[in-house]
Amino acid sequence: MNASANRFSDLEAMSLRVREHVIRMSGGGGCFIGASLSCVDLMVYLYKRALNVGPANFSDPNRDYCFLSKGHDVPALYGTFAEMGWIERERLAKHLDPKDSLYWHPNRAIPGVEFHSGSLGHLLPVALGVAYDLKMTGSKAKVVVITGDGELNEGSNWEAMLVAHAHGLDNVFVVVDRNQFQANMRTEDLLPLEPLPAKFEAFGGSVVRVDGHDFAALEKGFEELSGRTTKGPKVLIADTTRGKGLPSIEARADRWFCKFSDDEIKLLMNELHGGAAAGIVKEGLTVR
Amino acid sequence: MNTTETNKTPTPAILPPSCKYEAMLREELAKNPRLMVMTAENRAMLRNLPAFAGPRFVDTGITEQCLVGFASGLALRGRTPVIHALAPFLTMRAFEFIRTDAGLGKLPVKCVGFVPGLLSDGNGATHQSLEDVSLMRGIPGMQVFSPADEDDLVAAMPGIIESPFPTYVRYNNRAPVVTHAAKLGVGEAEVLKEGTDVLLLVHGTLFKEAFEAATALEAQGKSVGLVNVRWLKPFDAARILPLVAKAKTTFTIEDHFRTGGLNSVLAEHLMDAGQTAKVHSISFEEKWFRPGTLPAVLENEQLTGEHLARRILGKI
Fold first, then answer.
1. CA A202 – CA B50 distance, rounded (Å)
2. Is the Cβ pair B71, A129 closer than 8 Å?
3. Phi, psi at B95, each rounded to 5°
């Protein structure tokens, strides 16, 4: 346990800083804080440990790819990029400044962003084209697509799973941020996804399910998938908690898109660092 | 669970191209290693291509959305994908993918829509793309090409493949009734006749009928202009607007809804130029057409050369 904690202590520290960025971006005009906090750990793991990708090697044809299909998580992505040193931390304060390109969904003007997203169900199909070309050119690179669970309502994902399997795209890694919520409610209360592994397997995927907040589990799962010989895509279902890191907003349907005042952000930062629950009782739900 | 080898379709021998369009794609594939050909199981014009193209041919099955996304991913890797699906499903079912992936991404995805407009024959309204020009030209950066016939289509494709922009092509394999000017580039219209009484502006499927109407009107002593518009976007305003100014009456002729097609394009360019003109639209107004064989539909919709000439005479 201690050995494991030590081995991932840098990632844990980085995740904490990324969560601070996400919380700060929920000030001003607000952001999709719940879904951003759920995927911080898996993003930190992927960029820091699993993938060979970053602005420095974007023009390398054999680099890995990482597509963020659930684009509304972009505060977590940009927070991760800031901690990777790809964008300046100070730049995050320009969130929602029309003169910059940091807004509620990813823009390729930001170093590290593979492709714009926001409309759900787009980037798995796009990733297939990249994966197909990588295979054609003999590259062993990986193509990761981070999807939401609510996003799996979109049929284009399932089309893409059929196509990926048919074309033997075993270099595609679908990473599902399984935080159990979509915008307004629990996924299981709208279009139930479970048993999710069986669904992916029926479409030709090879699945591993892990705790998406446990770096050791993420690493073990990703490495296990990487080592598998499959015909179709590899699927890592990362079980996560919406709002992870802030117990007062965790797993709450009404903490989807939030806009917090400066004082509230101070309370949330305190809570993130182990202080008392922020206890923000105002109606936080903004349906978008 | 797995399909056994014996159940698989055997690898076909490389047969000669099934049509001029396929022959053109083979030439381009041989010249351009970045070129990819894709389809959402619309193989009518690619019948013998898969064996020739090998891995540079990708059939995604009946998945228009995935087709466009996949093609955009290939384009991100520096490929130029030419993708094929039935025009209504490509431009409508996959519209948002074309708009958001290829369009917003500024990717050189070449979208070829099969059986557009009247070429859907007996399929019925589900298959009638009478709004494809309107939809595609509304996407920033998207080019829209509607050739007069197979020759016009095949001659233009190499330039379209070479162009860095996403492009929508209204696939038209009707037999040519004229020999087209050589070397028409992207955005260039073809002026076949200049006239002062009537100017006929036509794109795509109805070129043959417009040509016949022009001939019939000339036989009645009218001075007739005829333009194969070809490109709805970019629109060849420099060639076309002076011809509109010269003619007493202009007719836009298209197998498209009146909204958003050639008639609208012309109106926009006339307004930009501060130019007024007497213009009539021959198009589909708030209706789909009764399906049947193409000759029967042309007759039923009063779009044969003879009908067009009569309708035009009635308006001038």
1. 28
2. yes
3. -55, -50
Question: Distance between CA A266 and CA A27 in Å, rounded?
Answer: 10
Instruction: Give the pLDDT confidence of A67-111 residue by residue, as tens digits.
Output: 999 999 999 999 999 999 999 999 999 999 999 999 999 999 999
Q: What is the DSSP letter of A277?
A: -
Nearest Cα to Cα of residue A215 among A3, A73, A4: A4
Contacts of B76 in chain A (CB under 8 A): 114-115, 126, 129-130
Decide: helix, strand or coil at residue B167: strand
8 Å CB contact of B70 and A125: yes
Q: Report the distance separating Cα A278 and Cα A260, nearest Å.
A: 11
Report ipTM for this prediction: 0.96
CATH number of B9-170: 3.40.50.970, 3.40.309.10, 3.10.105.10, 3.30.200.20?
Answer: 3.40.50.970
A287 burial (CB, 10 Å; 0-12 / 13-18 / 19+) is exposed
Q: Tens digits of per-residue pLDDT, A127-174? A: 999 999 999 999 999 999 999 999 999 999 999 999 999 999 999 999
CATH topology of domain A2-272: Rossmann fold (3.40.50)
Please, what CATH class does the domain formed by B190-313 belong to? alpha beta
Interface-testing mutation among B76, B96, B107, with chain A (most A C-beta atoms within 10 A): B76
Residues in Cβ contact with B259 at an 8 Å cutoff, skipping those fewer than 6 apart: B131, B134
CA-CA distances (angstroms) from residue A98 to A79, A80, A104, A112? 19, 21, 12, 20
DSSP string, A56-107: GGTT-TTS-EEEESSGGGHHHHHHHHHHHTSS-GGGGGGTT-TTSS-SSS--
Residue pair A156/A125 in contact (Cβ under 8 Å)? The answer is: yes
Please name every residue paired with A237 in a beta bridge, in sequence order, or none if there are none. A176, A209
